[in-house]
Design goal:
With 142 residues, the protein is an alpha+beta fold. It is 23% helix and 36% strand. The model has no long low-confidence stretch (mean pLDDT 89).
């Protein structure tokens, strides 16, 4: 299932002192944490899981990040997340970090491949149709 849409999910995250590196800007590893927070929020909103649940039957298989602009202490960042494709056992998420709510100043872009995963058996598994339907409804705005 291919999805071609705009970003419906945007999460505001404040930059903390602990996100900085010795050069005084956000460390590259912190970007992954920002994307993880946004991805988790996207899953919760998309699947209507309780906000105290961490029971996501997926595992990260690949992440690709482009760093475009530095981020500094005290800035408010906006992390957008969307699903662009769902296959037999995996899904592709895309995201970007903006330095303002207008999403005009893009500091980073990323792509993440998530595999539907059975943690008890330690194997990948097919993405259930009801999950695909939830994602499609969420991303299409229905």
């Amino acid at each position: 299932m291919k999805l071609n849409n705009s970003f419906r999910h945007i999460l505001n995250i404040p930059v903390r002192f602990s996100d900085l590196d010795a050069m005084g800007h956000v460390n590259n590893a912190s970007y992954l944490t920002f994307y993880e927070e946004a991805r988790t929020a996207w899953f919760r909103d998309c699947t209507m899981m309780p906000h105290n649940s961490i029971d996501y039957p997926t595992i990260v298989a690949r992440v690709e990040v482009d760093y475009l602009l530095p981020i500094s202490l005290g800035q408010q960042i906006y992390v957008a997340t969307r699903c662009t494709a769902i296959g037999k056992k995996s899904m592709t998420l895309e995201g970007m970090i903006s330095l303002g709510p207008s999403m005009k100043y893009v500091a980073s872009k990323y792509t993440c491949i998530m595999v539907y995963y059975d943690y008890q058996k330690g194997i990948s598994m097919p993405v259930p149709q009801d999950f695909k339907d939830q994602v499609f409804r969420y991303e299409s705005g229905n």
